[in-house]
Amino acid sequence: MALVNFDASAFVGDEELIRVLKGRSIPVDCSEDRALFYQGDDPVGVYIVHGGTVTIAMRTRDGDAVMDMKAEPGSLLGLPAVVSNSRYSLSAKAKQGADVSFVGRDEFSKMMLTEPGVAVLILKVLAAEVRTARIAACKG
């Protein structure tokens, strides 16, 4: 199977959304290379990429690469899994020195209920991911 050319900007939230999420987040220790989550894991939260190198990948059941790319600063990783309470569909790994923070699932859920304006911003990111996935699938 060929790699799908997926637009990394689809994972990026706007400045207001990143600001709100960062205020509810905790830093992730990336003093060494670190797996943030693996495809198929139960969702524990959303990861925010602020800088450095973070890669995201998707594999088939046979282990063939479907997608492998670098996440851009402002990327929100794990968002679809947390919102839908389903397993992560990608794997994410941070390289040593990456600047990443984490918002746990419970904290994320509270935020969605108490700040409805944020929910709209979250929907925009999810819609961009869906749109980009459809475009990539058509180019397949």
Account of the 3D structure:
This is Cyclic nucleotide-binding domain-containing protein. This protein has about 140 residues and is an alpha+beta fold. It has a single domain (about 10-130), classed as Jelly Rolls, CATH 2.60.120. The chain contains four helices and eight strands, in the order αββββββαββαα. The chain has helices spanning about 15-25, 80-85, 105-115, 115-140, and strands spanning about 25, 35, 45-50, 55-60, 65-70, 75, 90-95, 100-105. The strands form two sheets. A four-stranded antiparallel β-sheet has the order 1-8-3-6. A four-stranded antiparallel β-sheet has the order 2-7-4-5, with no helix packed on it. Helix 3 packs across helix 4 (about 115-140).
Q: Considering DSSP H and I runs of 4 or more, what fraction of the residues is helical?
A: 25-40%
Residue windows where pLDDT falls under 50 for at least 5 positions: none
Q: Sketch the major β-sheet.
A: 4 strands, antiparallel
- The CATH homologous superfamily: Jelly Rolls
The percentage of residues in β strands lies in 25-35%
Summarize the structure.
The protein is an alpha+beta fold. The protein has helices spanning 15-23, 79-84, 105-114, 116-139; strands at 26-27, 34-37, 45-51, 54-59, 65-70, 76-77, 91-94, 99-104.
